[in-house]
Write a structure and sequence with these properties.
The complex is a heterodimer of chains A (113) and B (110). With 113 residues, chain A is mainly beta. Chain A contains no helices and 11 strands. Chain A is globular. In chain A, 35% of the residues are buried. In chain B, 0% of the residues lie in helices and 55% in strands. In chain B, strand 7 and strand 8 form a beta hairpin. With 110 residues, chain B is an all-beta fold. In chain B, the strands form 2 sheets. In chain B, strands 2, 4, 5, 9, 10 and 11 form a 6-stranded mixed sheet that branches. Classes of the chains: A mainly beta (113), B mainly beta (110).
Chain lengths: 113, 110
């Protein structure tokens, strides 16, 4: 009974490159959430998606960041032209229904050099 | 005022002690409440949901006071393995995003 899966676990990018983070929700879960945790800070909500739909992207930076959850395959968080300030742990969570408990994946640690 | 406030600690307690964490939230429309624990450089793990009637799971007891907008977590008979950061988490109106406190660090010592 696999939990939320994320890959890669660690990602190193140079400034200006693109970063793609993947998340597969728990079996039976159709609601996916992305959070970011900056060093020494709490987790901050970024975006909430259901299959093929972005429901709430109120926490996403206006530029360079995008997310999708296609009909087939994992959810993708994409960061274009990364900058040093994007270095953080990015966690994905999933839930069975909106408002239910959210379960987190192991995270992707992005380092921008 | 922060949306979810916690004392950052650290709380250093001996094994077997009872320890309590408190948390306040600012949005009175908040609908559901949770405690998560996070070990160093790991993902948050759900510890328990918090209900108005209070709930208990083994050595852990959570309480919610909606009038005071206050949530608590009590840990009895602390174990070394309880050492972690405890996150107070609120699911605000609409239910689709969690707002996290910055966490309270607990260190249980021999």
């Amino acid at each position: 009974n696999a939990g939320v899966m994320q890959n890669p676990r660690h990602l190193v990018r140079r400034r200006g490159q693109e970063a793609r983070l993947r998340c597969s929700p728990m079996k039976g879960h159709s609601h996916v959430y992305w959070y970011r945790q900056l060093p020494e800070e709490g987790l901050k909500f970024m975006v909430y998606l259901q299959k093929e739909n972005i429901i709430d992207e109120s926490g996403m930076p206006k530029e360079r960041f995008s997310a999708e959850f296609p009909k087939e395959g994992p959810s993708i968080l994409r960061i274009q032209q990364v900058v040093r300030g994007d270095s953080a742990a990015y966690f994905c969570a999933s839930s069975m229904e909106v408002g239910y408990e959210q379960y987190f994946g192991p995270g992707t640690r992005l380092t921008v050099t | 005022r922060k949306e979810v406030e916690q004392d950052p600690g650290p709380f250093n307690v001996p094994e077997g002690a009872t320890v309590a964490f408190n948390c306040t939230y600012s949005n009175s429309a908040s609908q559901s409440f949770f405690w998560y624990r996070q070990d160093c450089r790991k993902e948050p793990k759900l510890l328990m949901s918090v209900y108005s009637s209070g709930n208990e799971d083994g050595r852990f007891t959570a309480q919610l006071n909606r009038a005071s907008q206050y949530i608590s977590l009590l840990i009895r008979d602390s174990k070394l393995s309880d050492s972690a950061t405890y996150l107070c988490v609120v699911n605000q109106g609409g239910g689709n995003k969690l707002t996290f406190g910055t966490g309270t660090q607990l260190k249980v010592e021999l």
